[in-house]
Amino acid sequence: MRIQVPVSKPSDHTHPPLTALGWSSFFADQVGRDETGLTPLRIATVHRSRLTAEGASGPVKVNLPAASKTTDFAVGDWVLSDPKTLMFVRCLDRRALLQRKTEGAHLPQLIAANVDTLFIVTSCNDDFNAARLERYLALANEAGTDPVIVLTKADQADDTAPFVDQAAALQRGLPVVTLNAKATQAADTLAPWCGPGQTVALVGSSGVGKSTLLNTLANKTGEDVQATGGIREDDAKGRHTTTARSLHTTQAGGCVIDTPGIRTLHVSDLAVGLDILFAEITELAPECKFRDCTHAHEPGCAVQAGVAAGDVAPERLERWRKLAEENRDNTPTTTGPRGNKKPQGRRKRR
Ligand SMILES: Nc1nc2c(ncn2[C@@H]2O[C@H](COP(=O)(O)OP(=O)(O)OP(=O)(O)O)[C@@H](O)[C@H]2O)c(=O)[nH]1
Ligand SMILES: [Zn+2]
């Protein structure tokens, strides 16, 4: 969508109230007594040299001091600004932050902030990949955002049940829905997470229907519509039509953030993210004989015993191992309370 950026702020009362943009006591409580005259704005798009935001008076361009970098901001951030000049004053603390490290980059890329629910979108076709979905789940868990698996293109599948079963097995208590992103009923299916003041974000590969869903949720038509692209018939891969993140208000009185398709999601700096994702392994690990058990070949391994007993799926253990190793390799030793150094010798628990 092209966000219209008026030079002066219109005082059109058809614009959504701040609460529909996700404003809550969590943010209001951060506003100091000397800051009550400032204007709260929610960041809608982040460009290289430009930020746009939604506020009580509609969409605006945020003015940044020369020293500020737009890369410090995430779509979904709440900022305080000068009411006259719309000059940025400060960013409010985030309730949740989705972020990822990209290859070669020093600092993480900020995907979206203050997101209540992460819609992890995949399709009932060859796009479905358990290992990739687990990466997104780890990201959501770590950020403190509730994940939901959204299976699109249900209208094109003979049987959606195998997709639903596989998705539900990825994490305990994980909600899974199937829908046709192009149908208006999709908004009803997703309504439990899209109520007034709620913020959802859409992630997934290119071509799974994120922009289509956004258009359905925000009921976008004509000029406003988010561009969607076809997919290649042979491998269901999309064409990376969406190139930037953006925040939009929904019909139901909340917000939705669209993100470009991610080619490869590498993991790093995960702690609880993996523990929640692989709860069946996390729960057994304290019973292992060695505290730093890799659950591969050690004697007295409770996780291997779990595999033998049929309580842990061997392919889950294998994927846990891969993700845990990647996470260790990508996480600097200085992060985290105990650092990330590989232990020198084997420490016995008892
Ligand atoms: N039949 C059917 N087609 C769908 C569905 N969801 C998406 N499509 C089609 O799939 C194609 C890709 O959809 P997009 O919404 O552009 O996918 P995207 O995830 O936004 O892709 P990027 O912008 O590249 O990240 C479009 O032609 C959509 O019309 C669905 O549930 N059913
Ligand atoms: Zn073990």
Provide an overview of this structure.
The protein has 350 residues and is α/β, with parallel strands linked by helices. It has three domains: 18-91, OB fold (Dihydrolipoamide Acetyltransferase, E2P) (Beta Barrel), CATH 2.40.50; 103-258, Rossmann fold, CATH 3.40.50.300; 278-330, Probable gtpase engc, domain 3 (Ribonucleotide Reductase Protein R1, domain 1). 21% of the residues lie in helices and 19% in strands. The chain has nine helices and 13 strands. The chain has helices at residues 25-28, 130-143, 161-168, 185-189, 210-217, 272-277, 279-284, 302-308, 314-330; strands spanning 39-46, 51-55, 58-62, 78-81, 88-91, 97-100, 109-113, 117-123, 146-152, 176-178, 199-203, 246-249, 255-258. Strands 10-9-8-11-13-12 form a six-stranded mixed β-sheet, with helices on both faces. Strand 2 (51-55) and strand 3 form a beta hairpin. It is globular. Residues 288, 293, 295, 298, 301-303 line the site of zinc ion.
Short description:
With 350 residues, this protein is an alpha/beta fold. The chain contains 9 helices and 13 strands. It has 3 domains: 18-91, OB fold (Dihydrolipoamide Acetyltransferase, E2P); 103-258, P-loop containing nucleotide triphosphate hydrolases (Rossmann fold, 3-Layer(aba) Sandwich); 278-330, Orthogonal Bundle (Ribonucleotide Reductase Protein R1, domain 1).
